[in-house]
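__Record contents__

***
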Amino acid sequence: MDMAFIISSLLKGVLLPALVSGFILLFLKRPLGSIATTIAIGVGFLAGYLGIQQYVYPPKSLLQWLPHVAIAALVLGILERFYRHIPWLVWLLRLALAELFLWQLFIQRLTHPSPRVRWSGGEAFINFFVPTLVILASFWLWDRVLKQEAAQNYKRLHALYP
């Protein structure tokens, strides 16, 4: 590999997102609080992605879906901060977002003109249901882990400062 390519990739893929995330945190942490971290991570990822990859629409490969997923995750992360006291709305947003991405991924199999390639109703149901179940289970597990970590941090903080 060419050394200039390696240095360029490191600058665009590591330094650029770190600088973008750092500046966002520096300027938005005080006025926005914890939402600034969500924004910094999302925008930093997008900066790194666009530094290395060219944006393509409509996406044709899994790699080209990454900026769309990052933007959706950023929006979902911000909305969850505002609506965390309404759990059913948070879960509804998560479900809608998961189904939207699955729809986009599966659209070719759902609308293909050839019956040999096109999914039947049962195949479509299974191919939507199983990934949806896995996605929602992942959200549920992450919620549990984060709640346990928050409870432990709360206990540690009150042990230090009673």
About this structure: The mean pLDDT is 82. The CA atoms of residues 155 and 162 lie 10 Å apart.
